[in-house]
Specification:
The protein has about 130 residues and is α+β, with helices and mostly antiparallel strands. It folds into 2 domains: about 70 residues, Winged helix-like DNA-binding domain superfamily/Winged helix DNA-binding domain (Arc Repressor Mutant, subunit A, Orthogonal Bundle), CATH 1.10.10; about 55 residues, Dna Ligase, domain 1, CATH 3.30.1490.190. The protein is built from 5 helices and 6 strands, in the order αβααββββαβα. The strands form 2 sheets. The protein has a 3-stranded antiparallel beta sheet with strand order 1-3-2. A hairpin with a 5-residue loop joins strand 2 and strand 3. The longest helix has 13 residues. The protein starts with 9 loop residues before the first helix and ends with a helix. The protein binds zinc ion (ZN) (2 copies). One zinc ion binds next to loops.
Length: about 130
């Protein structure tokens, strides 16, 4: 597989626009709803290519669904085991994950950190 930056197709631009306008994590179905004039397989192909290029992220949730997000800046994720919500966590790591892995001699293309637990909303609902 070539590592060179591919030119974005008009459809890829529309996918990116959909993701950045909605500012959330969208499932493939939600993206398809926004692009209902395009065939399913074509949209999936565009999503795959954007993931390969690291322009968007595919996150696998525990139930087996995947959500997509436009990569603005590196961040980690928190997934609530109770309500299934996905939260973006922006935090300073003392040492970037890339550097930790690089110290072992590997070359990092992408990092993906996800924490699991019970979110604050669910905790609050429980304590009431
Ligand atoms: Zn929750
Ligand atoms: Zn995110």
């Amino acid at each position: 597989m070539s590592r060179g930056k591919e030119k974005l197709t008009p459809l890829m631009h529309r996918v990116l626009q959909t993701l950045s306008e909605n500012q959330v994590h969208l499932t493939a179905d939600e993206i398809l709803n926004h692009l209902d004039d395009v065939g399913r397989a074509t949209v999936y192909r565009a999503l795959d290519r954007l993931c390969e290029q690291g322009i968007i992220n595919r996150l696998s949730l525990e139930g087996g669904t995947s959500v997509y997000e436009y990569v603005r800046e590196p961040h980690m994720h928190f997934i609530c085991r109770q309500c299934g919500n996905l939260y973006d966590i922006h935090a300073e790591f003392s040492l970037p994950l890339e550097q930790i892995v690089a110290k072992c001699g590997h070359s990092v293309m992408k990092t993906d950190v996800t924490a699991y637990g019970i979110c604050k909303n669910c905790l609050m609902a429980e304590s009431n």
